[in-house]
Amino acid sequence: MASPVAVTNPASAQPRTRRFRAYAAGVLVYNVLVVLWGALVRATGSGAGCGEHWPLCNGVVVPRAPALETIIEFTHRIMSGVSLAAVALLCLWAFRLFPRRHAVRRAAALSMMFLLLEALLGAGLVLLNYVDKNVSLGRVVYLAAHLTNTQLLLASLAAVAWLAYREPPALAWPSSPRLIRAALPVAVFVVVTGAIAALGDTLFPASTLAAGMRQDFSSASSLLLRLRLAHPILAVAAGVFLIYAAWQSLRRPGPAGRLAGAAIVLVFVQVLSGAVNVALLAPVWMQIVHLLIADALWIALVFLALETASPARAASSPRGA
Fold first, then answer.
1. Which of 6, 133, 145, 170 is the 20 to 30 A CA-CA neighbour of 284?
2. Which strand (E) or helix (H) includes residue 250?
């Protein structure tokens, strides 16, 4: 069986590799858009737009004369279906283009796994009725699991795009510096607490900033409101740690230093956008902007972890050997 072109003929493989890199970057960007649209579903209370039906929408394949909430939810389902097809193609292409044990193959396989799990978690939100006005502890726990999986999906897709640029053509999975590795779960934790806070903003909107603060400190308030209060404190503390972690790589030459600088800037921008979000009483558009910056910071940290990794072992065995 012939070896992948990346191993046997680097010159002829170059155009194919460039196309793969561009496609992988496009899939990553598209999935960020899917995540943002999912946040729009939550922020507009459209999670029940298709009723308690999944994968059908209100019992039909294509809803007729749908309400706005149905359009928002149904659009998210269509976007998720396109994402599934796009990541499946990405995975197949990675296994065709790169040799066995290559890190791109592993990242692509992880992307497919996390996307399938994402689809199941999304279905569970509907089937378990963790949508609309549900304020149960179960919804909070489920949301945390869902958001964690979403971040792992984006990280895997980012790894596919980034590692496709690395040489030699067959790489084992790299090992990043300990401080950068520690920054990744911290970033995920902040994103999860932010999503819980955003859910509280959606379910318990305040008319003024003072009224919102009274809600947060009231002993009769829902658990979601008390968790909403914790997010800004945790975000600032985590931001200090993320800046410190990225600062260690700021003087590295090449992409590592630039990525560290970008991560530091994004931390400041994210904290500022969070303050604006609170001051404006969390309008939908600001929640989406806030999440976009959070995802950009997360991807920058994943890129930084990969770029600052120690040299990986070469795996020279071609596919089928």
1. 145
2. none
Identify the H or E element spanning 40. Answer: helix 10-43
d(CA 249, CA 263): 11
Ordered DSSP codes for 162-226: HHTT-SSSSBPPPB--HHHHHHHHHHHHHHHHHHHHHHHHHHS--SSHHHHHHHHH-TTS-HHHH
Q: Is the pLDDT of residue 318 over 80?
A: no
Structure tokens at 41: 């579903």
Does this model's pTM top 0.90? My answer is no
CA pair distance 25, 310, nearest whole angstrom: 23
Alpha-carbon gap, residue 270 to 185, rounded angstroms: 17
What is the per-residue pLDDT across 82-116, written as a single tens digit (0 to 9) for each?
999 999 999 999 999 998 888 899 999 999 999 99
Q: What six digits make up the tokens of 235? A: 């975000």
Beta-bridge partners for 60: 57
What is the rounded distance in angstroms from the CA atom of residue 147 to the CA atom of residue 154?
11
Residue 194 CB-half CA count within 13 A = 31
Q: Hunting for tokens 């191993």 — which residue is that?
A: 7
Arithmetic mean of pLDDT over the chain: 85
The pLDDT tens digits of the residues spanning 104-163 come to: 999 999 999 999 999 999 888 888 888 878 888 888 889 999 999 999 999 999 999 999
At 74 the three-state DSSP class reads helix
- List CB contacts of 162: < 8 A, sequence separation 6 or more: 302, 303, 306, 307
In the block, tokens 């994103």 appear at 191
Q: Is 167 left (phi over 0), alpha (psi -120 to 50) or beta?
A: beta
What is the rounded radius of gyration, in angstroms, for the C-alpha atoms of the chain? 21
pLDDT range class, residue 50, cuts 50, 70, 90: confident
Angle at 149 between CA 308 and CA 40, to 5 degrees: 110
